[in-house]
Amino acid sequence: MSDCDILVIGAGVAGIAAARAAIAAGRSVRVLEARDRIGGRALTDTSLGLPFDLGATWLHDAEHNPLTDLARGLGIALADSDALRNEITFVGDRRITKAEDAAYDAAWGAFETTIRDRAAQPGPDIAAAEAAPQGGPWDATVAAWQGRVIAAWPLEAISLRDFAATLLSGANLLPEGGLGALVARLGEGLPVTLAAPVERLRWGGTEAVAEGAFGSLRARAVICTLPTTVLAAGALRLDPALPEIAQAAEDLPLGAAIKIALAAKGADRLGLPDHCSTDRQVGPGEDLIPITFWPQGRPLASAWIGGPLAVEAAREGPQAAESLLRAEIAARLGTRAPDAFRPGALVSGWVTDPWTRGAYSHARIGAAGARAVLAAPLAGGRLCFAGEACHPSLAGTVAGAWLSGGRAAEHAIAATA
Ligand SMILES: Cc1cc2nc3c(=O)[nH]c(=O)nc-3n(C[C@H](O)[C@H](O)[C@H](O)COP(=O)(O)OP(=O)(O)OC[C@H]3O[C@@H](n4cnc5c(N)ncnc54)[C@H](O)[C@@H]3O)c2cc1C
Fold first, then answer.
1. Which pLDDT band, with edges at 50, 70 and 90, does 2 fall under?
2. Which residue of 116, 198, 213, 220 has the fewest CB atoms within a 10 Å radius of its CB?
3. Is ligand 1 within 6 A of the CB of residue 387?
C-alpha cells in the first residue's frame, strides 16, 4: 500500500505549486522538505523589524506571473518597483551627466537587440559575452548588470541561446510584506513534513520509495524539485541512476548572489530620495554592486553581490560582504556615508546553504537544451523533475518555478488516474 498518490520532494515554490495542484485534482499528497521551513529560495526576514527578502524579491514579468493574481486574491498590495525607482548612476564619485545617461540607456537597448538578433541566427551556441556589444563606454557596465548581477554569473560562461530565451521583460512588482511571506502563505496547510531530507529515491518499481533519516515513504508518483546544484552534488541518490538527469543538472548550474541589508542608524538619508537605486560605471570584467537606498521608504540600504565575487564573499563570511558594501557606499557617497548605518548587516546565505548551493540557474554554453531534458516526465509521468531550472523562458524566477511545478503535477496526476 502506498502512503500517498503523489510525493513532492522539496517545499519551495515549485513544490508548493505542485502539491496544491495535485490536491486540487483529488490526489493524496505528501511533501518532504529538508529545511525546518517551507519556501526554499523565497524567504522574508523580519529581524530588522521590517520585511526584507533574503531571496526572491520581485514578481518579474508580472503580467504573465501566476503569483500576481494569487497575491491579489489574498488581498496583498503590489507596489510597482519600476515606477517607485529613482535611479542614480555614478562615474567614480560623481553623478552621471545627462549625456552619459543617454549613452547608458542606449547601451542597454543595444545589448538586448544584439543578444536577441545574434541568438536567432543559426549555428553553434556561443557564450552570451561573445554576442554582447563591446568597447563602448557603457558596454562593460551593462554586461556586468546582465551577467554577474541579474544572471548571477558572468556572461562569458553562459549559453547565448538560453540567455536570450530567459531574458526578462514586463513589470516588476513587490508584494507588501515580502515575496517570501507571500510564498509561505501559499504553502499554508499543505501536508509538509519538515526537516526531512530525502537521501535516496528508489523509483524503478510500480511505486517509488523515498528514504532518509525520517524513515521511508511510498508513493505512486514523485515530483522532485531539488535545485540543480543539489542534484548535481548527488545529495539525492536516484536508484536506478539517471545519467541524463545528472548531466542536465550539471549543465544548469546555479550562479551566486548575496543580498545584504544595512539598517539606518538615525534620520540621515544621505540626501538621497526613497527607493533610490544606485550603480556605477565599471570596466570590463569589473564587479558591480547595485545598492538601493531606502527601498519603499524603509530605513535601510539593500545591496546585491553577484557572480564569483559572491562565491568569494560567501566563503569569507558575512563580514566580508558587509565590508564590500560599506566600501561601495563610501566610493559613491564619501567616506562618512557608511556611518549612517548601524554596524552589522543582514546577509543572505544561499551560496553556502547545503539545500541551495547557489542562487538560480543558467545554462552552460551549448547546453540550452538541458532545461527540456530536466523537465521531461519519466516513467509515464510517475517521476517528474520540476523547479525554476525546468522552465524554458522564466527560469531563475518564482514564476518559472511555480509554472514548472504545476506542469509536473499535471503529468503526475495523469499517471495516478
Ligand atoms: C538572492 C536571490 C534573489 C532572487 N530574486 C528573485 C526575484 O526577485 N524574483 C524571482 O522571481 N526570483 C528570484 N530568485 C529566484 C527564486 O528564488 C527561485 O527561482 C525560486 O524560489 C526557486 O524555487 P524552486 O522551488 O525551484 O527551488 P527552491 O526554492 O530551492 O526549493 C527547493 C526545495 O527543496 C528543498 N530540498 C533540497 N534538498 C532536499 C532534499 N534532499 N530533500 C527534501 N527537500 C530538499 C530545499 O530546502 C527547498 O525548500 C532569487 C533567488 C535568490 C537566491
1. confident
2. 213
3. yes
Q: Please, where are the H alpha helices in 195-307?
A: 228-232, 243-251
- In angstroms, the CA 210 to CA 197 distance is 10
Contact 299, 264 (CB under 8 A): yes
Place of cell 523580519: 46
* Distance set, CA 202 to CA 19, 43, 382, 411 (Å): 20, 31, 12, 19
Q: Does the structural domain 4-41+59-77+176-253+363-415 have CATH classification 3.50.50.60?
A: yes
CATH code at 79-173+257-347: 3.90.660.10
Q: Is 9 in the pocket of ligand 1 (CB under 6 A)?
A: yes
Q: Would you say the CB of residue 35 lies under 6 angstroms from ligand 1?
A: yes
Nearest to 269 by CA among 293, 241, 296: 293
pLDDT at 118 over 90: yes
CA of 40 to the centre of ligand 1 (A): 4
Show me where the domains of the chain are located: 4-41+59-77+176-253+363-415, 79-173+257-347
Per-residue pLDDT of 198-234, as tens digits, reads: 999 999 999 999 999 999 999 999 999 999 999 999 9
Exposed, middle or buried, 9 (CB in 10 Å: 0-12/13-18/19+)?
Answer: buried
pLDDT at 216: 98
Ligand 1 atom nearest 400 alpha carbon = 19
Residue of 355, 384, 385 to mutate, ligand 1, most atoms within 8 A of C-beta: 355
Question: Is any ligand 1 atom within 6 A of the Cβ of residue 259?
Answer: yes
Q: 222 with 382: CB under 8 angstroms? A: yes
Give the pLDDT score at 59.
Answer: 98
Q: Is 10 in the pocket of ligand 1 (CB under 6 A)?
A: yes
CA–centroid distance for 397 within its chain: 5
Please identify, by atom number, the ligand 1 atom nearest to the C-alpha of residue 16: 25
The letter for the amino acid at 11 is: A
Number of the ligand 1 atom closest to the C-alpha atom of 53:
3
Give nearest CA residue, ligand 1 atom 26. 387
Nearest CA to ligand 1 atom 42: 197
Taking CA atoms, 74 is separated from 39, 78, 153, 181, in Å, by 17, 11, 35, 12
